Structure formats: structure tokens, C-alpha cells
Amino acid sequence: MEMEMDFIRKLPTPQEIKEQFPVDAEITRVKEERDEEIAKIFSDNEDKFILIIGPCSADNEDSVCEYMSRLAEVSEHVKDRLFIIPRCYTGKPRTVGVGYKGMVHQPDPDKPEDMLAGLIAIRGMHTRIAKETGFTCAEEMLYPENHRYLSDLLAYVAIGARSVEDQHHRQVASGIGVPAGMKNPTEGDLSVMMNSILAAQHEHTFIYRGWEVKSKGNSFAHAILRGYVDQYGLAHPNYHYEDLEHLLQLYSEKDYKNPCAIIDTNHSNSGKKYEEQIRIAKDVMHSRHEDPEIRKLVKGLMIESYLVDGCQPAGGGTYGQSITDPCLGWEKTEKLIYDLAELV
User: Fold this and answer.
1) Are 207 and 166 in contact (CB under 8 A)?
2) What domains lie within the chain, and their CATH numbers?
3) What is the pLDDT of residues 62-116, one digit of tens each?
4) 90 by DSSP, 3-state: which?
5) What is the reported pTM?
6) Span 241-264, mean pLDDT?
7) What ranges make up the beta strands (E) of 107-265?
8) Does residue 255 sit in helix, strand or coil?
9) E strands along 29-174, which residues?
10) What span, in angstroms and rounded, lies between the C-alpha atoms of 327 and 273?
């Protein structure tokens, strides 16, 4: 039986896109410096705290870049305590598989999907952010095959709750040059996440983009706690002191490199009540002060924020407001960043 899909066009390889839209020497230097500092934080050689912060989905280049410019100004005031990695997520998982799937699919949310235009758009936006702000960003590795289109621009990669058990995601995470955060799955089984971390920390031989490749293992693969949903559809948090103690215990049971965690303050930890992120972030900081082992474990927070509070439907027309999950607006974000710097 023939495959029931249309082959639209052959897309350029990552190498071809990189050659057509190269990064300059200054961006390369900035990325190398940031990668080195992030590695120091994850390996306990620097006592800064990471904030992975930004829009749920990077849906509009101009509003995203305005947000990043504001973030860069605040970052200058807190850089002795906080290391900021902006969220710039251009591919979005959808629970039922339909809806806006991110800029890589739709550079313009009001127009049909166009993957070639999307690949060019996301590379252009990441490059613009690096040039204008000096930031290298975090992305979700929704599609492992797409990683190399941006690999020379990224500081951090997250493996989502729906992808963390997938063999290919684990293998590719083992071969990237930046930290890979493994989220606990949506139903909350931490053993899945822990197995994924261990897998990503080991070397693998596998097929990638038509090549037989061998990865070296990613010593900075780590946990992201994002809460979970039970069999009745109710959200449950897993950021509390007792949850962090439990994660410490899980890390102690096997030979993990650089055992650490990032706490996602939204999603099921907040029940998608975006303003709760403020309270949750401060609760985690309190836990870090209560126990030196938890302080060593928790390297940072993941926070969803944008220019305008809340969210809107795609095409809603409010500049700088999320068209996916609700986010903290800029005023609340700015205050929270300064508060967290005082709590480090």
C-alpha cells in the first residue's frame, strides 16, 4: 500500500541553511563564552542561578525581540547572581495534534503552514536575538532532526514531557553540545525521566538524518520537574521541598553525572495559573535555603513570561501576548527577576 501523504518538496539540509544564513564571528564568540559559563554552573564551579525565561511560544519576531531587549537590560543589573537563558521556543507540541505548532510551521500564525519559510524564520529570529542582545536561547527539541538548523545559536535544549520516553530524543540529546533538560512525563512517573537522563548521559550509535553517527554522551543531561496530571485530569505539583528530597534520593541510586534540576514553575506545577509562577519560584528559593543539598541540586527555574499578561487565541491581535499557554506580563516579570536575584 502506498503512503498516504504528499511529498511537497525536498528541504535544505541544516548545513545548507547555515551556509545561506551564517552567524558571524562575534555570535560564535558569545555562544562559546555563554556555553562555558553554563557548564560551570551545572558542574558546581560557579554559584549563579539560572533563569530560563520567556514566551511559551515565540510567535512573532518583533514582539519576541522587544521582550528580549527588555530582558537584556534587566540581566545587566542581576548578572552577578542570575544567568538568564531566554526561552525562544519555535516548535510547540499539541495535546490533540492540532492548532498552532510554532513558528517553524507557521512564520505567520494567520497564514498556512510553510516549513521552508519556517526554518528560515526561526534561524533569522535566533540570529537577530544574539546580535541585538548577546543572548543565546533555549529551545524545546520537539523534532530531533531539526536541532542542527539552530545548533550554532542555542544555549540549552529541553526535552518535553511527551518526548522524554522516546529513544530518538534521548539519543540525539546525548550528542548535543549544550545541557539537555529532561521533563518528567505528563503522568508524573519520575523513573521515566531518570532513565532518560541516564540514557542521554551515555554514548550511542544510531541513525541521524541518514547518517550512522556516534554520540559522546551529554554529562549535563538533567531533570526538569514540571508537575503532572493524574488519571482524573487533575494537576499536581512536584516542586515542593519533599519532591526535591525525593529527586535527590533518585539521583543517589545510580551513577549520574552532575545531578541537578531545573524547576518549571508553570504547566502542571501551577495548574497553568500563570500568576502562581511568582509564588512557586519563591517557594523553590526558600527550599534551596533550607538544605544545602537542595541548593546544590536546583540550578534554576523555568518561567513563562511575555510582554502582556495571559494569553489569547491565535490571531487575537494583542501585541506581545501569548497565543499558547498564559504567561506573566512584563511588569510582573521584571519585579520577579529582581526579587529572585535577592533570594539567590
Assistant:
1) no
2) 14-343 (3.20.20.70)
3) 999 999 999 999 999 999 999 999 999 999 887 777 788 999 999 998 899 999 9
4) coil
5) 0.96
6) 98
7) 137-140, 154-159, 180-183, 205-208, 211-214, 222-225, 228-229, 235-236, 261-264
8) coil
9) 49-54, 82-86, 137-140, 154-159
10) 9
